[in-house]
Amino acid sequence: xxxxxxxxxxxxxxxxxxxxxxxxxxxxxxxxxxxxxxxxxxxxxxxxxxxxxxxxxxxxxxxxxxxxxxxxxxxxxxxxxxxxxxxxxxxxxxxxxxxxxxxxxxxxxxxxxxxxxxxxxxxxxxxxxxxxxxxxxxxxxxxxxxxxxxxxxxxxxxxxxxxxxxxxxxxxxxxxxxxxxxxxxxxxxxxxxxxxxxxxxxxxxxxxxxxxxxxxxxxxxxxxxxxxxxxxxxxxxxxxxxxxxxxxxxxxxxxxxxxxxxxxxxxxxxxxxxxxxxxxxxxxxxxxxxxxxxxxxxxxxxxxxxxxxxxxxxxxxxxxxxxxxxxxxxxxxxxxxxxxxxxxxxxxxxxxxxxxxxxxxxxxxxxxxxxxxxxxxxxxxxxxxxxxxxxxxxxxxxxxxxxxxxxxxxxxxxxxxxxxxxxxxxxxxxxxxxxxxxxxxxxxxxxxxxxxxxxxxxxxxxxxxxxxxxxxxxxxxxxxxxxxxxxxxxxxxxxxxxxxxxxxxxxxxxxxxxxxxxxxxxxxxxxxxxxxxxxxxxxxxxxxxxxxxxxxxxxxxxxxxxxxxxxxxxxxxxxxxxxxxxxxxxxxxxxxxxxxxxxxxxxxxxxxxx
Length: 610
Prior knowledge:
Layout: H1 28-31, E1 38-41, E2 44-48, E3 61-62, H2 65-71, E4 75-77, E5 92-94, E6 98-100, E7 106-109, E8 130-131, E9 134-137, E10 143-145, H3 148-152, E11 169-173, E12 183-187, E13 194-195, E14 232-235, E15 243-250, H4 259-262, H5 267-271, H6 275-289, H7 295-306, H8 317-335, E16 349-351, E17 365-384, E18 407-422, H9 424-431, H10 434-454, H11 468-487, E19 495-502, E20 505-512, H12 523-526, H13 530-544, H14 590-593, H15 605-608
């Protein structure tokens, strides 16, 4: 038998690189590696510090007046970037603090290894330390090191034990399997060796009388909070260890031409001025900045701001404000903004297609619009742990800073899209069907059950948005994105949906998801022309009639997290999570094409028979 090759010891990083420097894209600071998230740099692990520790002196300002007003901030800032010469950047702190040595198997706090300055090595073996794979967190956003000592000594603890036996912990892997059973922990005090099997059970830590420590290590000098939540064991890289709560808005007229951004510092002054004084003020300001401030456009901005129907400080005002943002966007997308009436700084161009849309009438699709220029701002409001912020789920929002800040980290996406509406009269007639209502009611009941389970206050359970109109539009958007990814050459993750569904709206916008994704040079807009949209829509619906998981998929009584889907799986209509607004929930392709037993419940059933 040939012996394994000798293990090569990796050299430590030079002292000048301590603390370590890593790099992520600015967009990832909103969606993947935001405040409070765990990021791996080489063989080390860190937690991203709060925004009050960021150096944003060189970070560009992002203006989106409508979204800033709803979130209660003055502006947004692009996450700072840094290079080898600048001091600008995002700060991180080492976490978790418990490490193990792969050579001597020592398991302890990182301070106990006596590492050389500027290196993260075992002082005895000169081997690079391995951060703990496991942490514990709770639904309130607190996070701490996994209690290895209590886990290993759970069968030998005596009443009144302070938690220290004087022994040294050891962690090794048996290598027999890839499961938790092969991760073994021991102590030199003589206790039997135990595995990590069972550590992920919901009540695993509470059975050991391990309570949440209330720690917030991403916030510098933050005191521990009292917390009654039961902590859960998580893997350090688990997706539920950090879930961003992102709020978005489109830049629409009259705020989309750059004028509002130039007047950002002057709104409080202009708001209280009479018209004639505003005219004089703008002339003086224009001479100072060498820019023409049109008097009529400024008045239109002031009037639009005064008539905004938002109330973020009232009870349930923020939810109402988000709905108001969507309604404003829906009206503007339906009305359009011709390119001929816009200047070169206009960030919103929306026009009807050149050819007739009569071919879409049998499908109930009305008013297609080509969004040739689009700007979307995505702001990181907070984050959650353990509980996923699903559709309308009431999760705890962990703060980004210890003290309230007047800005939030955000990113902007410049792209394009296609806006579609459905015939509301036909929708209402279809939704009155008893079979349709019964399927949606099943989704709604499952969603309400999940919301009640996650609600922090039993008296304030949010309502489910599930309705025939919403589920239909959502599923249709997924089917179209999948079709365009197959026929048009777009990766599904490069497209994103934006739904407009309530009693007064019945539309959807499919747009580019990121500024560097495929399909941002006019290709997506071309898909909205009726001569290409009609065959794509027909193909998407025909493809939805059969799933490789049928008949299990179409006959499913509940699927997805919490059972909030019916006929929906990864083989038919599910998308990458970055493309879906509702985390792949509230979907049912039977509402598109019907079921084998009752094809009439499909909204497009008659169109497919033509």
